[in-house]
């Protein structure tokens, strides 16, 4: 067996100790006589897993007591529809900031439920910068203000939580949750798919302030009604039990690494190294404004695009995989989430230098 | 390690060869250098898994070409809402047969989207029989007729596909799919959670005839719109990739067992043995009419309910677990899905006889 460096934007690399533990426990979990895969979600074994999952996440993110933590299905994409259905309440408008492909998707679906106010957009700069917060149009009658904390395709990340001028702040943190410190209490709602920094695909975390819960529209399916799931500890119906368990293992690994502060330092180091290598080269280029470059997803284009294919082939031959950029922006993209070791980033940098030297 | 016999109603026992293969492949799948847990859902490795999953399911169930096979999230419970939203089209009524707790849940949610015609109900017999099909009220203007093929709580199973008199037949087969032969073409739509006979929790299979797809209501989230997911091979957004893989392993195990015919014989044998043991005893009793007893979930009550606790404790001490009946019906329940070996059923029967002898 030889494990490669996997730069996939998600699902993505997992910490090897997590994989090893999952393997060792696959047939039997803690003398239970069964695999986690086989456990009733209402049984005493799984209760332990579920409780530890929530308390570890609360500890890592410092989630205040007046926030519910929900573990749902459907992905962040499903939340594009279920957020307005849950928290518009009697309002008819919501504000959205458009900073890239994922903001656009959220906006498109919100249109089905309310009038969307585009508070700001960086479309005219091809999503390479975040519009100055002071210039945002904030509608005081809007139910909330939505932003995408990190754009995986465009490689743009908010350097800090934006000021919302009193509006309830909602954030899609699918691709940077748990990678940096984050003031949960500045938000009304944070949501994230797990398949980047938290585990495998299949779980959607929703962290929502209690006062926003309980006034969903009438036709929302109960399994996506925050109030119903909160009342039932996200067990209104059978959850993806094994995925919860794996997310739990990733959280315990994060705690062992020293928690968010430690992993953030690690992520700063890794991303600085790679941006430095890109900026110092004449072959590679990252178009994103330095103030909002993503620590998670680093796109770069080659000065000569006929080199794209040879670059990808040679990278793969060197065990550096899934580097192809999204078709909408072309070029390359290195996703370096929490679980990507510094050694992987250094191997990529070495390879890039060698490729530049020989091409 | 000692694995117990797990009679959980779901999530439930999985075939040991599947667990062993999952364990062996956990760190790396087929020389890919990565775990299935880490694979991009758009990558070439996962494409193989996804294609085999669909073609194996089509082969096992004999799904005709004019049916779409979708792999969704949210559980069968989410489909209680999304089925009417997808296939009511311009109709305003739907027929439902009420044969137990799961029918009731489906009916309750359907009320949010249409007028529900209760075609038949066995509530007055405490769900111990299925009303004669000839007595069902079938509204020719209804969009479809819904039935629950197997009721896990009440232990009632349709012995054959009911005649629908031309109405589009919709079936919740969550707890008996792949356990017996089934004429897919008699249905417009079949849906099932995977956590009983198909794998771990986290995937919802929807098998739907093409002509029903493409006229969902406007406000359905795209990830639950059958047309959107069919166009995208269920990859409109990131699916629970590892769960797809595990369902795929279970399907391959089923094929190795000889497919549906072989597993059905196996299920007939196991359930006959257990019903025989119950019927011959004076301590145990199953209240369900012999014509519609479930092969999957076998509830039984003890003549003296003060023996319930000692029974469960002694069973567990003998490695026979998760036998407690649902709180709504009390007593015991043995769920004996495909993956429960005959040895498990025989061990339960032996234990029951011994317990009866000594109490």
Task: List strands and helices in order, with pairings.
The structure is a homodimer of 359-residue chains.
Chain A: E1 5-6, H1 16-24, H2 44-61, E2 67-72, H3 75-87, E3 93-98, H4 101-110, E4 115-121, E5 145-148, E6 150-151, E7 156-157, E8 169-172, E9 189-193, E10 204-209, H5 226-231, H6 241-257, H7 259-280, E11 284-285, E12 297-302, H8 308-317, E13 320-321, E14 332-335, H9 342-358
Helix pairs in contact in A: 1-6, 2-6, 3-4, 6-7, 7-9
Please report the total strand number of chain A as a whole number.
14
Question: What global shape of chain A is seen?
Answer: globular
- CATH fourth-tier homologous superfamily of the largest domain in chain A: Type I PLP-dependent aspartate aminotransferase-like (Major domain)
Helix fraction bin of chain A? 25-40%
Pathway (chains A, B): Amino-acid biosynthesis; L-serine biosynthesis; L-serine from 3-phospho-D-glycerate: step 2/3; Cofactor biosynthesis; pyridoxine 5'-phosphate biosynthesis; pyridoxine 5'-phosphate from D-erythrose 4-phosphate: step 3/5
Subcellular location (chains A, B): Cytoplasm
Main location (chains A, B): cytoplasm
Keywords (chains A, B): Amino-acid biosynthesis, Aminotransferase, Cytoplasm, Pyridoxal phosphate, Pyridoxine biosynthesis, Serine biosynthesis, Transferase
């Amino acid at each position: 067996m030889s494990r490669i460096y996997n730069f996939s934007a998600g699902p993505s690399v997992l910490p090897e100790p997590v994989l090893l533990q999952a393997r060792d426990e696959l047939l039997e979990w803690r003398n239970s006589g069964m695999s986690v895969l086989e456990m009733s979600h209402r049984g005493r074994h799984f209760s332990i897993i579920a409780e530890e999952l929530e308390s570890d996440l609360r500890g890592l993110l410092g989630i205040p007591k007046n926030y519910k933590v929900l573990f749902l299905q459907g992905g962040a994409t499903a939340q594009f529809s279920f957020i307005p259905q849950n928290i518009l309440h009697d309002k008819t408008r919501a504000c959205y900031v458009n900073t890239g492909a994922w903001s656009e998707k959220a906006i498109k679906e919100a249109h089905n439920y309310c009038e969307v106010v585009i508070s700001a957009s960086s479309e005219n700069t091809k999503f390479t910068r975040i519009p100055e917060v002071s210039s945002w149009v904030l509608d005081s009658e809007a139910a909330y203000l939505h932003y995408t904390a990190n754009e995986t395709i465009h490689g743009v990340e908010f350097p800090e939580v934006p000021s919302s001028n009193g509006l309830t702040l909602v954030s899609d943190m699918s691709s940077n949750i748990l990678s940096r410190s984050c003031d949960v209490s500045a938000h009304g709602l944070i949501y994230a798919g797990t398949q980047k920094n938290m585990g495998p695909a299949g779980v959607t975390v929703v962290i929502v302030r209690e006062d926003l819960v309980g006034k969903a529209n009438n036709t929302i399916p109960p399994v996506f009604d925050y109030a119903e799931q909160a009342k039932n500890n996200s067990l209104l119906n059978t959850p993806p039990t094994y995925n919860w368990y794996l997310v739990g293992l990733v959280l315990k690994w994060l705690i062992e690494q020293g928690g968010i502060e430690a992993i953030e330092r690690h992520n700063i180091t890794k991303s600085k190294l790679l941006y430095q290598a890109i900026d110092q080269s004449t072959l590679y280029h990252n178009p994103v404004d330095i103030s909002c470059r993503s620590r998670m997803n680093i796109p770069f284009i080659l000065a000569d695009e006929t080199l794209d294919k040879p670059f990808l082939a040679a990278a793969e031959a060197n065990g550096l995989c899934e580097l192809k950029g999204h078709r909408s922006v072309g070029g390359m993209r290195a996703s370096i989430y929490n679980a990507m070791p510094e050694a992987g980033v250094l191997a990529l940098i070495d390879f890039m230098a060698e490729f530049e030297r020989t091409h």
